[in-house]
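So, does this match?
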Amino acid sequence: MDPDFDEFLHVPARLSVVALLAPADWVEFGFLRDSVGTSDSALSKQISALANAGYVTVRKGRDQGVRRTHVRLTPHGRDAFRRHAAALGRIVAAASAPAERSGPDDEED
């Protein structure tokens, strides 16, 4: 397995969240929820796991009296996502490369 492949980050819900955060600074919780297509509680669970692992930072505040939660990648999270995406790219490239043929099935008749 590629050493940059991140098993923790590869969980589909976490990978979706981190991919949405990668090009942004702070992202509002509701945007993440709607983009990922999940419930508040399911997204909250994934954000908590990412925060506990040091991949994201969470900021809670009020905007015109309404509670708002914003999330962003930490430098560690940004680097982990970059490395994981590169590992996925290498895996796909290896799968797309022509296979070296050897063995009895490869002989011409």
Q: What stands out?
A: The beta strands are 27-28, 56-63, 66-73.
